[in-house]
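Review form for a predicted model. The reviewer records the input and the model, then writes brief findings.
Reviewer: anonymous (R2)
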Amino acid sequence: MFYYFTKRTIDIIGSLVSLIIFSPIIIFVALLVKSTSPGPLFYNPLRVGKDGSQFKMLKFRSMHMYKIKGTWVHAEKYLQSHPKLMRQYQENSFKLKRDPRITSVGKILRKFSLDELPQLVNVLIGDMSLVGPRAYQQDELIHQQKVYPTTRKCVKIILTARPGASGPWQVSGRSSINFDKRVEMDADYIKRKSILYDLGIVIKTPIAMISTKGAI
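Model under review:
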């Protein structure tokens, strides 16, 4: 009980303080996104949260919007209409190393994880935690558990906790880590359940962002 109360307290205070500190950067990035490509400022993908419930994650849009039959749609629709690209996406742990959908500004934002700054709002309202397992897509979990059947036990453990804005895999290689190793790291993090471990990850996060290791 003490762990969960302390963790949530740190999440609320930490997200509020971070939003204030990073507000100049957040405003600058917002202006940059809106002025360089047509479409909404934010991207709100559905992600799987605690106990398997889904929530809308808040991110700065880093991809192009596409016009299909006169309607602007997000890059996910573009991917669905290109089967070859979709196969590459699924085979590479739901990532593309040379993703044609990403804007020139989006490449920079993703490289330094600046597109994820709005997730601090998700932390503040309780959808996420400052530190936790990755917030997975529903179809990613379904597909990858078929590819890696041994990961099902780890996934069950992961879904008992709030996903994190940062976590063990983010500070240890990000997208260069395959799904099976990623969920093992996330499950191990939940088993350890330590505020000191959380603080260690928080300290490592800015270093991981600056180094850009494993960023796509």
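Findings: The longest helix spans residues 2-21.
Further findings: Residues 2-211 form one domain.
Recommendation: see findings above.
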